[in-house]
Specification:
The strands form four sheets. The chain has a six-stranded mixed beta sheet, sandwiched between helices. It is an alpha/beta fold. It has two domains: 179 residues, Ribonuclease H-like superfamily/Ribonuclease H (Nucleotidyltransferase, domain 5, 2-Layer Sandwich), CATH 3.30.420; 96 residues, Rossmann fold (3-Layer(aba) Sandwich), CATH 3.40.50. Helix content is 29%, strand content 21%. The N and C termini lie far apart (61 Å). Helix 8 links the parallel strand 11 and strand 12.
Length: 330
């Protein structure tokens, strides 16, 4: 276990552009879809250089079935006396306020948090998030995969209760501190992404639907939403699945999942400019899934495994975009 005490200052100056504080977050949920609920949440507050300031944990009554108890261990009996989300929203917000939200596969945690605040007719005070998967990619850490346990093992952090929000947040905080310091020593740009809160929530026949004025939404991960613009239809027919070792072909359907170092909209623009079809969901017709965390439980990653869809990470996709084969002539 890494100690929570200051270490001697690095010879290199701390980057002045880095944030002044972080909120390392983990939430356990009833599932992965847009109408699933948070059942526990933990926050470790860190200062500008990653030192732990305090931590907080709460159970949350989801007012529904708790979902995969075999994963998180929280039964209906355990949760029935827990506070409802609106009852802990203020304290949760105080822990997040003015800080960068840090999480492992941050798009998922942020999506769940944003939806809970929207249901409560409130807004989470978060403006930026940082995904530790994306940061490990920026640092070039030699990890066998992007699971939290692999990141923890790399830094010698011992997991005690996997899938328990408080322990997962502790593990992540302890692994984030050396990651942050390595980034600072190398003056690495932190992969910060904007958090756009949901501003309205309505319950309809097809389930709860988040809305934001003057915007349409499409999935960007496990039930997440972000503003999007309509694109022209791809003019090329789908040539089928991507074959590893071969170039992409114009017309291939490409889906994205999870956080990326490059802004997602820019990645999609590059794909469209190369003649690819950007798909907002994953089906048997999808040619390729681009994700930095293929072992995550996002709906697209799960379907990719079910359908046998080829998967590449962001860096590999960037290389493939440099040489996209032209569409076959009819």
């Amino acid at each position: 276990m890494l100690e929570d005490r200051p270490t001697p200052a690095s010879a290199a100056p701390w980057p002045t552009a880095y944030p002044q504080g972080y909120a390392v977050v983990d939430v356990e949920t009833t599932g992965l879809s847009r109408d699933d609920r948070i059942i526990s949440a933990a926050v470790y507050r860190l200062d500008a250089q990653g030192e732990v300031q305090d931590h907080w944990y709460t159970l949350v009554n989801p007012e529904r079935d708790p979902g995969p108890v075999w994963i998180h261990g929280l039964t209906t009996d355990v949760l029935k006396g827990a506070p409802l989300f609106p009852e802990i929203a203020e304290e949760f917000a105080a822990r997040l306020d003015g800080r960068v939200l840090v999480a492992h596969n941050a798009v998922f945690d942020w999506s769940m948090i944003a939806r809970e605040y929207a249901r409560a007719q409130r807004t989470a005070p978060v403006r930026q998030r940082l995904c530790t998967i994306a940061l490990s990619k920026e640092l070039g850490l030699p990890l066998p995969n992007h699971k939290l346990e692999s990141l923890a093992a790399h830094f010698g952090v011992v997991q005690e209760r996997a899938h328990h929000a408080l322990d997962d947040a502790r593990v992540l905080a302890e692994a984030f501190r050396p990651s942050l310091r390595a980034a600072a020593a190398g003056n690495v740009r932190l992969p910060l992404l904007e958090c756009r809160p949901l501003t309205e929530w309505t319950d309809g026949a097809s389930g709860a639907v988040p809305r934001q004025p003057q915007s349409s939404y499409r999935g960007g991960g496990a039930g997440s939403w972000r503003p999007s613009r309509k694109r022209s239809a791809c003019p090329y027919p789908n040539p089928g699945r991507y074959e590893p070792g071969k170039p992409l072909k114009q017309g291939m359907r490409v889906a994205f999942s999870g956080d990326t170092s490059v802004e997602r909209e820019l990645l999609e623009d590059r794909a469209v400019e190369a003649g690819l079809h950007v798909a907002t969901s994953l089906s048997r017709l999808t040619s390729l899934l681009v994700t930095n965390d293929p072992d995550s439980y996002t709906s697209k990653a799960v379907k990719a495994k079910q359908f046998g869809t080829p998967v590449v990470d962001e860096a590999a996709f960037g290389q493939l975009l440099q040489d996209v084969a032209p569409a076959e002539k009819a």
